[in-house]
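stuck on this one:
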Amino acid sequence: MKLRLFWGFLVVSALATVASAQTKMSGTNECGKPEAQHMLEVGDHPGHALAIGQAKCAWTKPWEIEGIQSKAGVSTASDDIHGSRSRTRGYYVDTMANGDKAFFRYEGPMTLKEGAAQSAEIKWTLTGGTGKLKGVKGQGTCAGKGGAEGAFTWECEGEYELAK
């Protein structure tokens, strides 16, 4: 019985240590109309196309990583479009207020109306960074809403952990 209690305590302590190492983050990001964008029809059925694009983004409500506020970034994505739905996959390079960079990979479904993005739900992974953010890891989600001329507003949240 004592051994079982010991192992139970050990597992709970380990989980508490892992949970406390994660730091929550949230923010709002505005991405403008893609500056570079290319689309090719696949030809296997109407409305199926592959697209790639790149847009500049700025944080209207910055999130913080290790006390450093996010400032702006560049999103580069590819989309597999099937009529009114799409699957987006991409990368986001976030430039922080001190000049350090954070690197993200993301993926998720998007809804379209007449070819324009309306909404999206993505999962992101924070894969690393430069300077003070070297070795940072994290994960989270963003909910996006389309705006005029291809602009997008993202409400994002998640958590990160610094390299040990």
